[in-house]
Sequence to fold (211 residues):
Amino acid sequence: MPRLTVQYLATQQIQFALEGVDASFSNAIRRVCIAEVPTLAIDLVEVLENSSVLCDEFISHRLGLIPIVSTVAKEMSFPYETSLDEEFGRTEIEFELTAKGSSDQTYDVTSGHLTSFDKRVFPVKHASLDESNPDSSKAGILVVKLRKHQEVKLRCTARKGIGKDHAKWSPVATAVFRYEPIIDINHALMDTLNGNMLRYLNIAYLLFLFV
Fold:
């Protein structure tokens, strides 16, 4: 019978041991984590103004790939679903992005410039940047660069989806599995070995575990 033992559990990470199943079953769980977990992603972009060097389609594609905190995804419906309940029938969340270059220096427009109409939904900040920076626009993922007098003004719609439909709905996470070997030690043979040989065996065992 399959048996699952949780070894580590945190807010954004879980590690568990799965016994009694083959590799295909373990890989199926990994694939479900990547392709079947619903998330939110920008699916529709209305371009009101774009005088940057990038075309409308390029910017729309980059916006669609920005990860969005999706804690409310379970409360929403898929766009192709219908519901009589207005609360659980919600399928869209609106964003706005307005930015304009006003100096001779290049102005970076990032995901931090996206303004959500639902405060529970917002773009994920760039992990390599300092999130304590009071300028939230700098703690974001680069979308486009503007020169003086260049401007972008967009309206975006985020919808619920899964990675199997499009890669932009794939959760920004790593799901992997590996085999854990079962090692039986012959203690009778170990008793016949001297100290140096035991040290070599310990080193070989450590190398086997970490390689």
Remarks:
- Residues 38-161 form a domain with the RNA Polymerase Alpha Subunit; Chain A, domain 2 fold (CATH 2.170.120.12).
- Confidence is low (pLDDT under 50) at residues 127-131.
